[in-house]
Amino acid sequence: MDYTKISNDEILKWLKEHLNEERYIHTLGTADKAKDLALQYNLNPEKAYIAGLLHDCAKCFDNDKLLKIIKEHLEVEECEMLNYKTLHAPVSAYIAQKEFGVEDSEILSAIRWHTLGKLEMSDFEKIIFLADKIEPNTRDKDYREKIKGFLKEENGLNKAILKCYKETIKSLVKRDLKICLLTIEIYNKLQDLVN
Ligand SMILES: [Fe+2]
Ligand SMILES: [Fe+2]
After folding, report:
1. Which one of 1.10.3210.10, 3.40.50.150, 3.40.640.10, 3.50.50.60 gives the CATH number of domain 8-139?
2. CB neighbours of 79 closer than 8 A, spacing ≥ 6?
3. What's the 69 CA to ligand 2 centre distance in angstroms?
4. What is the pLDDT along the chain (195 residues), one digit of tens a residue?
């Protein structure tokens, strides 16, 4: 089934033109990892590959462009406006739909929430979230191995995502940055799910 209105080759060409080299390599790694995780968890590998391919498509847009698209077309969480680094997620979902013709709601939602996460995440959303964190092309090896270790356990998706939230929260505290209430809520919910 076609999940986009143009071919994967054309998407790759667009990405090469709109992302820097490191982000392009990260994108290819995320798409492959998303496909692997989909196979591991009995989800649709083709859909996962597309979601991985497009998850960061707006990552290299400048802030003015991101804010303009958001202002004109989207609603975002208040805490997303506090950290401009997170704004590419809703805009990437928007571009996936407008530029590439993605209509599948699971793909769009997985892209939309890949930075912040959300309280009710489907397994599909979870694997895209994780693929972004553990793709081998640009992510730190020790970190990847730790997360992958959790994936071997029972309830592995939740355990792996909880680990990601722990690391994110630690890093925010270390850098003296604010933490979104939603991040804390998701962390608490994951604690309930794994304990
Ligand atoms: Fe991202
Ligand atoms: Fe990413």
Report:
1. 1.10.3210.10
2. 86, 116, 178, 180, 181, 182, 183
3. 20
4. 799 999 999 999 999 999 999 999 999 999 999 999 999 999 999 999 999 999 999 999 999 999 999 999 999 998 888 888 899 999 999 999 999 999 999 999 999 999 999 999 999 999 999 999 999 999 999 999 999 999 999 999 999 999 999 999 999 999 998 899 999 999 999 999 998
Residues with CB under 5 A from ligand 1 (ion): 56
| Residue listed under structure tokens 């492959």 | 32
What distance in Å separates the CA atoms of residue 34 and residue 36, rounded to the nearest whole number?
Answer: 5
Measure 23 CA to ligand 1 centroid, in angstroms.
9
How many Å apart are CA 129 and CA 165, to the nearest integer?
11
Could you tell me how many residues make up the chain? 195
Ligand 2 is an ion; residues with CB less than 5 A from it: 56, 132
Structure tokens of 152?
Answer: 């071997």
Do residues 61 and 91 make contact, with C-beta atoms less than 8 angstroms apart? Answer: yes
